[in-house]
Design goal:
The chain contains three helices and nine strands, in the order H-H-E-E-E-E-E-E-H-E-E-E. By secondary structure, the chain is of the alpha+beta class. The radius of gyration is 22 Å and the shape is globular.
């Protein structure tokens, strides 16, 4: 066998085996768990307002003008605009597919608070911003929700 062909073949096999031996070190789930923990820590600090709510491509943010959201450590949330208190619940988890989730439920059958009562994917979190996305299981439409700290 030609030594150059043998050397090339040996290098190819070695690189292939090396790449197969590399494994996922689990950082994805750690990052997802960290996103959930970061959201849990941030959301209970102060009050928040919705600065973006896009439902099926339509901007619905104005439905939440004047509302401030207070998220409590016991999993309850209060949305108020000074005169109308609306109670709900919130929780976080990591789905079976590894997606960090923020679950918001106002238990209202219709209206704007029904529309944000979803299991939201956590896109990004900081101490002043919570960016969420929901993909409909029915038609695949995408809703976007952004909370900014007051």
């Amino acid at each position: 066998m030609n030594p150059n062909i043998f050397l090339a073949f040996f290098a190819f096999v070695s690189i292939s085996l090396l790449s197969l031996s590399c494994s996922n070190d689990g950082n994805t789930s750690n990052t997802n768990s960290e996103n959930v923990a970061q959201l849990q820590d941030a959301i209970i600090q102060g009050t928040w307002k919705i600065t973006r709510f896009i439902e099926d491509g339509v901007n619905q943010t104005s439905n939440f003008n004047g509302f401030n959201f207070t998220f409590n450590t016991n999993g309850t949330v209060l949305a108020t605009n000074g005169s109308t208190p609306i109670n709900g619940t919130w929780s976080t988890n990591v789905s079976s597919s590894g997606t960090p989730k923020f679950v918001l439920n106002f238990n209202i059958s219709n209206g704007p608070f029904d529309e944000i009562s979803e299991d939201w994917n956590i896109e990004s979190v900081s101490s002043t911003l919570i960016d969420l996305k929901h993909v409909s299981g029915g038609d695949g439409s995408i809703d976007l929700l952004l909370f900014i700290k007051n």
